[in-house]
Specification:
The protein has 268 residues and is an alpha/beta fold. It has helices at 7-15, 17-25, 34-49, 59-76, 78-83, 89-106, 162-180, 204-227; strands at 3-5, 116-126, 129-140, 146-152, 186-191, 196-200.
Length: 268
Amino acid sequence: MIATLSPSRANDYLNCPLLYRFRTIDKLPEPPSIDAIRGTLVHSVLEKLFTFPRAERSLLLAESQLLPLWSEMKESRSDVQELLPKMNEEEFLLSGFTLVKRYFDLEDPTIFEPAELETHVEVALNEHLLIHGYIDRLDIAPTGEIRIVDYKTGKAPGIGFEEKSFFQMKFYALILWRTLGKVPKRLQMIFLGDGKVLTQDPSEDDLLRTQTKIEKIASDIEESKKSGKWQTRKSRLCDWCAHQGICPEFGGTPPPLPNENGPNSITN
């Protein structure tokens, strides 16, 4: 069976193989996060914004979409319903609007037309591995250059940590290169938390190195599955981990692995 790998799951394994196991193989539940839900809402507002004609894409229009989209999320998502009693909705919506407003400080959505919004892309790197992901926005210039855009509702990484953030973008760029035969001209991350924009212009060599890295991650995952050994990797990220109670680093014991023929037979 061909394995599949996304940037999120690849990063899980890089950050902590045991976390990858908990999320992908054990599929353990995690408590909903207000920050994650806010991020989903802001992404939805920006996606909706670009469905309107260029001349109508104003901050006022974006603001008018915030409450209806939030109402839809409250009705359809159990994680949102779970968090509602703990939330101050007025403060939550105000913080969401602040992020949307900051987007308008960084880009003018009336001067371009995206080629794709929230689009799923995938490609088989070899007979054993398919990689995939969701691109927030894909822009294609009249001259054919491709720009991959990703919205981040947090703050930009500090100096020295930018390259780690760009792994996700190069992951997407590799997929597009393999499917379209053209290296994307620009990778752009828009950080709405602090109003910073980071860009990179990848080369074929950059993407070949990314492919090698992805294939190594997939190989390591398969080796972990075969051996049943999932290492811990203690870091500052542990402070936000929902699984400390069953992590050996914190005195816990992981649950038994699922059946070999179950969900751990595929890399999600």
